[in-house]
Specification:
Length: 410
Amino acid sequence: MLRRQLLHFGAFTLGGLPVSLVKAEGVAQKKLVVVMLRGAVDGLSVVAPYGERAYAASRPQIALPPPGADDGLLKLDSLFGLHPSLAPLKRHWDGGQLAFVHASGSPDPTRSHFDAQDYFESGTPGRKSTPDGWMNRLLTALPGEPAPTRAISQGSTPPRIFAGPASVASLGLGPNALRRRAIDDPSLQAGLAKLYASDAQLSSTLRDTTEGRGEMARSMAAAEPRSMDPTADGGAPSARSFAADARRLGQLIRKDPHTQLAFTAVGGWDTHVNQGAARGQLANRLASLGEGLDALSVGLGDSLKDTVIVVASEFGRTLRQNGNGGTDHGRGNVIWLLGGPVAGGQVLGEWPGLDTSALADGRDLAVRTDFRQVLSPLLQRHLGLSETALATVFPGGPHTWRYADKLLRA
């Protein structure tokens, strides 16, 4: 029972990495936050190609009106517009901190949520045998020394992306995410330390767990008091709830000098029925997401200048709406990039167009950019990974991308 309790309250993938707290005074840690949209968000509504005639023709009830019209898109350029519910993020686009990579995704053709999410999180599309997640491999490959809070996963369930031997700290949801638990009692910690003294792995797990929880508690105690207001969301899955959790994560990253990697997920994007256009089901969820991502940037504060936030989903949705006013599982999607290092104000990638001949299987936006081609230059140029280290994070590649030089600021 004690072993299970320790693993439950501690970081869920704590392995045998030694803990050595780095001194970060005067050193700006480069950070990466990954936000996964589980359920396959409709990228053709997030960044809508209003300049393509086939867009509105294929979606008579759910196409977004063009910029300038009532409930119209927020103009990005002559081809693309941002969903109006994402208005809180427009300031980041205008400020050059938000970019998109369209027609991107996994090269594997599966339309299974389970398989596609597994492939994104393992970083090995088409290979189900990969035992660990790419962010755990990244954690072991990062330059510098490990620390118990170098990587944080926010959520109630351990994600596949952090599966592996490297230590990962777990942050729950809601204002009670770091409430005291039995494992925080010094007497229990001392008893467990004595009990596990002869077991190197469990001793390491206990040390990482207690130090990681203590580090996060100290960081959150130093954050603004309003971030821990229990009336902020009441645990409800609403825009306010996600914004509060996202802001809390951003503040924790900002206050803890050791944190470099973080992951969180947002569900509810499988819009087969009554998807809506500028208003409705999808619009409400995008409003929640936009408010949350903006809150994350606010929580990060000055750390945003050293942080890249990646927002991605397992696959996209069909070009044509279905008979239920929704969209079905598709292929190509859009990856979002937000942060100070991002060369924002642009939609990157090779756009294949929406002509029938250009669609994947005659129905879907084609994938022209592998998601690993977007992530790889971030890991190398932003986090400082070597070619050799990158090959361990994404074995088999691809690592190169023709637009890589345009992704980050010089």
